[in-house]
Specification:
By secondary structure, the chain is mainly alpha-helical. The chain is built from six helices and no strands. The chain has a single domain, classed as SLC41 divalent cation transporters, integral membrane domain (Tetracycline Repressor, domain 2, Orthogonal Bundle). Helix 1 packs parallel to helix 6, helix 3 packs antiparallel against helix 4 and helix 4 packs antiparallel against helix 5. It starts with a helix and ends with a helix.
Length: 175
């Protein structure tokens, strides 16, 4: 194991990238301040879309990083893996989108809000699946360690785009 100082320093690049991307994601929320002001429930539901998207994408990323480390992912089976994970994302998006959509409807007694929540979850889980495969593969191809950087980049995408998708759909269909 590397000394504590070296281990911490090796993570600083990705932590600084994470800090920058978190500010960018916060600006995505800032674009929709009017919508959040008009429908306060949006603020309470946003973390669900981002959190489930991030966790789902990180599961995919972990499988891909493991597959790369074990030599199980080859140029011949990469596209099969991509389409398989898109299928998983679609299925999970329908199941968990329906679940959170129903939850939002029951909690707020607003069918349109429930449908927006379901659609946002479906889209974010599809995005998480695609990026969960693509990011570690791209980092690996660029000679970077996908175990260090994948989760930071994936979190940025699933948080930032999750907020943007959810609040964008809410603005279009609820206001």
């Amino acid at each position: 194991f590397a000394p504590i100082w070296d281990s911490a320093r090796n993570r600083w690049l990705w932590l600084s990238i994470n800090l920058c991307t978190a500010f960018i994601a916060s600006r995505a929320i800032g674009l929709f301040e009017d919508a959040i002001t008009q429908i306060v429930a949006l603020a309470t539901l946003m973390p669900i879309v981002a959190g489930i998207g991030g966790n789902s994408g990180n599961q995919t990323t972990a499988l891909v990083v493991r597959g790369l480390a074990l030599g199980e992912i080859t140029p011949e089976n990469t596209w099969h893996l991509v389409f398989k994970e898109i299928g998983v994302g679609l299925l999970n998006g329908m199941v968990w989108g329906g679940t959170v959509g129903l939850f939002a409807y029951l909690l707020y007694r607003n069918l349109s809000l429930g449908l927006v929540m379901a659609a946002a979850m479906l889209l974010n889980l599809l995005l998480a699946a695609l990026m969960g495969v693509a990011i570690p593969l791209i980092l690996h191809r660029l000679g970077r360690d996908p175990a260090l950087g994948s989760s930071v980049l994936l979190t940025f995408i699933t948080d930032g785009m999750g907020f943007f998708i959810f609040l964008g759909l809410a603005t279009v269909f609820l206001l």
